[in-house]
Amino acid sequence: MNNLSRRSFVSFALASTSLLAMPAISTGSARPKVVVVGGGAGGATAARYIAKDSKGAIDVTLIEASKHYYTCFYSNLYLGGFRDYDSIGHSYDNLSANHGVNVVHDWAISVDSSARKVRLGSGATVSYDRLVLSPGIDIKYDSIDGYSVEAQTKMPHAWKSGTQVKVLRDQVLNMPKGGTFAMVPPPNPYRCPPGPYERISMVAHILKEKNPTAKIVVIDPKNKFSKQGLFMAGWEKHYPGMVEWIDNDTHGGIKNVNPETMEIETDLDTFKADVACVVPAQRAGAIAMNAGVTDGDWSPIVPASMQTKADSNIYVLGDASVASAMPKSGFSANSQAKVAANHIRGELTDSRVFPAKFSNTCWSLVATNDGIKVGANYKAGEEKIEVVDKFVSKTDEGNAKRKKTYEESIGWYNGITTDMFS
Amino acid sequence: MVNIVFKFFIAISCLLIFRGLVAEPLLDGADFDYGEYLSGQCLTCHQNSSDEGIPAINGAEALYIAKKLILYKNKELENEVMQLVAGALDKEQIASLAIYFNSLEK
Predict the structure, then answer these.
(1) Domain carrying residue A126
(2) What are the pLDDT digits (tens) for A316-348?
(3) At a CB cut-off of 8 Å and minimum separation 6, what does A32 contact?
């Protein structure tokens, strides 16, 4: 079988599979069709809520390349040894079995917004009445001189969960005694604002136990970060003298990285690392770019519905959207998905549409039983999603409160993953 | 006999009026569909299969849920997340959530 015929055969086979998987499309059912691209906190939630709440009145197809989804949230806890890898992996089986979602494991390659069709990696196309894009982030590999796709095995970003986090954990566990772990957090805006600093905490937790003379140097392209006071107080309390955080004004800017020599050059100095986690700048996942609903790196949305400003038939959720005051987090994406699901049902089945209500809380683990959190709720303003009220943990909280916050985060993890996949 | 039936009728009526005056105002304006929509915000954290870290609330008494939410709203119960969530709920929203979660299986 030559390449062309093999491709034709695969296309035919996948098309046949999709006919079986999506009878509504092949039979010309009158049910309105929603296609959701991306099975993370935004996409899985949107698919589940649209299918569940419409009680079969809407034909929902979820396009997601992975058969098992490993959550980005809690991947730091896997890194620190608080969770095993399998515990952050989830299957899509229940979305099909319980709610009739057509789950298609493929890549969405392009969107023809005038014909309202999504082309898949197999070559098949899926038509939609409404399209939900929740592709998360793509890494801008060229945003740091010397970094590349190839470099990510030597200097893992580990910012999309999965095997990259495994690679990083192995590297930390095998670091030479008294060695240096370097962390380069991403510039704003990026997925999971407290994530790099929770990651530093988790690496420090491993090193304190297994390699206590090791050092951590944080070469930050920013001058401040999320929950800064809480993290820095926690590092001093649990890992005294181990973590050195260098802000952008002090090091003067990151000039390049060298994965061969494991060096990170700044205006101030060249830092040599034994293990380095380098997280470049980010942008909306490629399909949002391809669909023509982005402005620059991200997709502007209408706050009341999460429809894109460019195309009212296309909604963008989560990290890929410009959600203004809302951080790029799994919680935010899950919250936005419910607003979009309610709006889409209203558009397609005349069900009631209620005012948008958004919320977010980010829990982080600093050390064993030392959890902290920051949260807010939001409303849809005319132009932007706006903060209504917010809170953040306090630096002088007692140990019992911090333990309770950590336990609450476990409850949240179980809750959100149930809300996405059950 | 008629007298007994009459007294019983009066007693039941008083009970219903009393319940109406004292208890049910907390659930006035409850809207099941609105509660279902609003519950999405709760279900990011609350789930039914476990109380680990965060309590399961499905099937709880509607008045119990409404009262708890009001206590969080007034910051008389501690927990920043719940104070934030309840703080942004009005009376109709609290009532709607209360009857919706009450309708769910435990």
Answers:
(1) 3-138+283-354
(2) 999 999 999 999 999 999 999 999 999 999 999
(3) A57, A58, A59, A129, A130, A348, A349
Clarify whether residues A259 and A289 are in a common domain. Answer: no
The conformational region for residue A83 under phi > 0 = left, psi -120 to 50 = alpha, else beta, is beta
User: Residue B27 carries which DSSP code?
Assistant: G
Indicate the residue among A263, A280, A297 that finishes a domain. Answer: A280
Q: Is B43 on the interface with A (CB under 8 A)?
A: yes
A194, A374 Cβ separation under 8 angstroms: yes
Q: Closest to A389 (Cβ–Cβ): which among B46, B50, B84? A: B84
| Cβ within 8 Å, pair B80-A418 | no
Q: Do A338 and B88 touch (CB under 8 A)?
A: no
pLDDT in tens, B39-83: 999 999 998 777 889 999 999 999 999 999 999 999 999 999 999
CATH of the domain at A316: 3.50.50.60
- Residue in chain A closest to B54 (alpha carbons) equals A411
Measured in angstroms, the CA of A369 and the nearest CA of chain B are apart by 12
Strand-strand pairing, A263-266 and A254-258: antiparallel
Of the candidates A354, A377, A414, which has its C-beta nearest B88's C-beta?
A377
Whether residue B46 lies within 8 A of chain A, CB to CB, comes out as yes
**Total count of domains within chain A:** 2
For A412, nearest residue in chain B (alpha carbons)? B45
**Cβ proximity of A171 and A276 under 8 Å:** no
Please give the Cα distance from A343 to A180 (Å, whole number). 50
Domain-terminating residue out of A235, A260, A280: A280
Pick from A280, A261, A270: nearest CA to A154:
A261
A327 in the same domain as A257:
no
Helices first, then strands: H and E counts in chain A: 12, 24
With an 8 Å Cβ cutoff, are B40 and A338 in contact? yes
C-alpha–C-alpha distance, residues A247 and A236, integer Å: 17
Q: Does the residue A375 lie in any domain? A: no
Tokens describing residue B84:
């934030």
Contact criterion met (CB below 8 Å) for A42 and A317 = yes
pTM of structure: 0.90
pLDDT in tens, A25-66: 443 468 999 999 999 999 999 999 999 999 999 999 999 999
A45 and A126 fall within a common domain: yes
Domain of B82 in residue numbering reads as 29-103
Query: What torsion, rounded to 10 degrees, do the Cα atoms A80, A81, A84, A90 define?
Result: -20
Q: Is there a contact between A338 and B83 if contact means CB atoms under 8 Å apart? A: no
